[in-house]
Amino acid sequence: MRALQTSADMSSGTVVVHVSRPPGFLDRHEGRTLCSVARSIARLKGFDYADPADGVCLYAGSLFFVPDDTLLRGKADVLGVRAEKDLYGGIVPYPFVQTKAISHGLVDCAAARPEGWSVAFAERIEGVVLAGFTAFTRDDARRAARRLLKQGAIRAKRPRAAGGNGQRTLLSMSEVEPLLAELDDGDLAADGLVLELHLDGVTTLSLGRVTR
After folding, report:
1. How far apart are CA 55 and CA 53, in angstroms?
2. Buried-most residue among 7, 64, 89, 114 (CB within 10 A)?
3. Where are the beta strands (DSSP E) in 19-131?
4. Cα distance between residue 94 and residue 75, in whole Å
5. Under CATH, what is the fold of the domain 95-197?
6. Cross-strand partners of 66
7. Nearest alpha carbon to residue 160 among 72, 32, 31, 69
8. Phi, psi of 209 (to 5 degrees)
9. Beta strand 63-67 with 14-18: parallel, antiparallel or unpaired?
10. Measuring CA to CA, which residue among 189, 197, 139 is closest to residue 169?
């Protein structure tokens, strides 16, 4: 980061937009929305506002981060995020926990899984999510797809995609194979593939909690 020169009479803190995605993200709708949210937070807190182009040094007073993604523990430590007062978002211990991969369990006890995977968590939420599985290998994805297709059409979701992107409706195993052929081995092992029952005519509600 480039250092942002600060004066003694600046506000009590700065709201900082932290972006980990490729260049150009802030020019798209999602990026512009993120900056708009950060500006609103700055007004509410009586803080200054800084986007990535400003470059804020990590010792420039009280900083409140608005990241483009859930932070990994290591990155949060580097940024100096220690409590709710430092961050609009969340912190997780493993990359896959940043994504929708945690919304479903594995197809069976022999299925591949990344370090830190919680079988207990998947079991606890099973009753409040759609029937589905998360797979980290092609073979596991095939087995999961076969089981789900017995109940109807399924929707495949790439966990790193957002805003409805990276999704496909599958009606048969002949449609599953072309999708699996597109996946990178490393991405699949790290992020997984979500397979769940497909629903038509749905309404999506976002729930969350904001504190001051």
Report:
1. 6
2. 64
3. 48-50, 63-67, 71-72, 91-92
4. 11
5. Dna Ligase; domain 1 (3.30.1490)
6. 17
7. 69
8. -135, 130
9. parallel
10. 197
* Residues contacting residue 193 through CB under 8 Å, at least 6 positions apart: 134, 135, 136, 141, 156, 157, 158, 159, 183
Label residue 198 left, alpha or beta by phi (over 0 means left) and psi (-120 to 50 means alpha): beta
97: closest CA among 40, 160, 175?
A: 160
Looking at residue 162, its amino acid is: A
Whole-number pLDDT of residue 62 = 87
Helix (H) or strand (E) holding 37: helix 29-45
Beta-carbon count within 10 A of 170 CB? 20
- 70-11-8 Cα angle (round to 5): 120
CB 177 within 8 A of CB 126: no
Side chain identity at 133, as an amino acid letter? F
First to last CA, the chain: 27
Mean pLDDT, consecutive 10-residue stretches, the chain (212 aa), reads 42 87 86 94 92 64 90 93 91 95 96 96 92 97 97 95 84 96 94 95 79 69
> For residue 83, what pLDDT is reported?
87
Joined tokens for residue 57: 């040094």
**Lookup result for tokens 């999510």:** 129
